[in-house]
């Protein structure tokens, strides 16, 4: 008799806890969260509270850490003070009012002004890009700053790291940052730090997850930036990770996957902005403050390679999602043509609405994506949006498998009869993770020949891609639709 009473008591306790958690979640989770994210978390917690609640507490808190927010706020003040006298854009630039509005938006959100940058080349071939990096590192005189999300010392990158070692041997200060979780799964990651120390490189892991050392953080955060600066004079920025282009994993090798990336080489004052982003991240991980070199420029606005560029850092330290607002601004600016290139296109409501609205306004929208993404969940989450995109009139171009199109840029209205061109280029994908969970580095291109280079790059990608039609897409079966929709829910869990 007592056993039945005890069992009933525990059942009541369980029910009270379960429904208490659900009622609390309904009133707590939606606060300061996008509806799609709130709905996804509520669905998981309401159906699977034992699984959903621990995941929510571990991975979805809006609280990153007091230390990181403090550092970001201090950095914003530092950057703002250092550049207070610099105008929003070069004084001899006469921007279109919409472009000027974008520059002002980004200055407000990030404190970075638009400035001059000389385009020294868009490196779209993997081997050529690495070779050029080695050349620049071998010519370094004072210091080298490397901040790249994924790094692995393998056969492909061996010469780059040896070049860093040669630089250190001749007295060049080499500082290097790589993401802890981003690099952890690749062969040799556990020995990478020791190998770097052995050649004289001073290194730190970005966002280290080491609770036993008092360094606990949300395990889903990443520093996804790719920035390399040499002597404060030459900077590289883009999508290239320092790892073999097949990413070393057995499943990638079996599938024959090869990543398609691009880096831009720049000189001029924009390099100071890039170096400032590195300095903030270096301070976050090391506590060391770096003196930022003054802008290096000859003062000449050359018609060939001079660009007006604006650095747009983003990430959990910024509460206003500067990269997302920039992308949406560019999409709304487009009057005739819009090119979107992203390996992971998983838009939130605002971005999806902006893209489809552009189509309804008569803008031709070309979306460049991989035919088959490298991740199952991401691939199906992305393709869950194809129906709405195709119905709105988006032209979807699938870069053929097994290649992974990893380049990321937006380009609006390039061409003599297309209006005023503008672009964004860098490390940020167009997905919810890149807007809210990743630290990203993006360049707004407001003027210059980099706009031409990006247009030609997009045309090259299109020429080898496979068009996807609405008629073809409508032939997919029920289970494909079901899987896509389930994976779409997971993309909003942030």
UniProtKB/TrEMBL annotation:
- Domain PLD phosphodiesterase span(s) in chain numbering: 219-246, 401-434
Q: What is this protein called?
A: Cardiolipin synthase
Q: Which GO terms describe its molecular function?
A: cardiolipin synthase activity
Q: What GO cellular component is one of the record's annotations? A: plasma membrane
Taking the first listed entry, what is the main subcellular location of this protein, grouped into a coarse class?
Answer: membrane
Q: What is its EC number?
A: 2.7.8.-
The taxonomy runs: Bacteria, Bacillati, Actinomycetota, Actinomycetes, Mycobacteriales
Which stretches are transmembrane? 12-29, 41-59
SMART domains registered for this protein in UniProt: PLDc (SM00155)
Alphabetic keyword roster: Cell membrane, Lipid biosynthesis, Lipid metabolism, Membrane, Phospholipid biosynthesis, Phospholipid metabolism, Repeat, Transferase, Transmembrane, Transmembrane helix
Report the record's Gene Ontology biological process terms.
cardiolipin biosynthetic process
Report the NCBIfam families cross-referenced here. Answer: bac_cardiolipin
Q: What membrane topology does the annotation report for this chain?
A: Multi-pass membrane protein
Main EC class the enzyme belongs to: transferase
Q: Which domain of life is it from?
A: Bacteria
Instruction: Tell where it localizes.
Output: Cell membrane
Matching entries from Pfam families are given as: PLDc_2, PLDc_N
The species is Corynebacterium maris DSM 45190
Known PROSITE patterns for this protein?
PLD
